[in-house]
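Researcher: Next sequence.
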Amino acid sequence: MAQNYIVEQLFDGERLHRDVSMVVDDAGRVQSIDPAGLPEAERLCGLLAPGLIDVQVNGGGGALFNNDPSLDTLRRMGAAHARYGTTGFMPTLITDEAPVMERAADAVAAALRDAVPGVLGLHFEGPHLSVPKKGTHEERFIRPLSPAELRLYGRGDLGLKMVTLAPENVSAEDIRRLVSLGVRVCLGHSGADGDTVAAALRAGATGFTHLYNAMSPLESREPGMVGLALISDDAWCGLIADGHHVSAEAMLLALKAKPRGKLMLVTDAMSLVGSDEASFPLFDRVVTREGDKLTSSTGELAGSHLDMIAAVRNIHHWCGVDLFEALRMASLYPAQYLGIEGGRIEEGARANYILLNSELQVQKTWIDGREVFSQ
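Model: Next structure:
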């Protein structure tokens, strides 16, 4: 049955509309948007905006994908992040042993078969990384690319596929092979020099994982991975806008350097988002939350306690980014990076959207026309 709404404010991904009628059909797509009123329509007070898309989500709702790579974990992650406006996400498995990677792939395949709300595919962050730039990743599981992983990455039932790797440890030939398997290759956790990064980009890498973090820095005589990320106009960069991973000044530099549309907000969220818990186990360590900062018992940052709408608020307030551009950084630009529909509310589009109040807090979330969260 079609759903009828009168929307006080509707941001369609490009323009703001006021007091419009919107009809969503029973297939979960926007049927019409019209200035005229509708009889017996539900009134949505606030700002209706496109649903947010997160390409790096390790956990949520008290569940961490590495600790329990299961269908239940994916359901819990999706429900937790929907509270904060995420309507599409890439479950992310950090460096782990081969059986855990296989279980994660099976869980994502099952989630896609069951149409678990929000699940888009699978992001393998590792295991082909640089040990000196491993961050919180487990050193004993870091390893070269092998035929076993290539077979896993080549599976056709995983939806969208991403792999974060260090290009000094994966050849340009292997990057081309991954791209031929339908994998979006991101560069990160790397100490590579500029020439190595440039070769990886020529081989088909298209993104950089959590810009600035765990990558070779920009120096006067060597651009490093940070320098190449900033000057590569065709490449996307993920940005963890939590004030712990990246300062406001570093965000401003990236905003000035990158073309519009090539910076996308990500969370790198761990299990505590959408949970009242204060700590969780990660391999043989414990990660503890203090405020919105997560620290491993070995001292390093261990993911984030960030959600997508908080990332939008942060870059809007801290960096002066126009609200609608901040929303695009969390919706349209990730969709463009993934090559999927998203970031728009228009006739024929999937009915994935969120309702925000004046404090930019999520009041409702819809996925394919179905309300999955209400405050």
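Model: The two ends are 24 Å apart (CA to CA). The chain has two domains: 3-49+345-374, 52-338.
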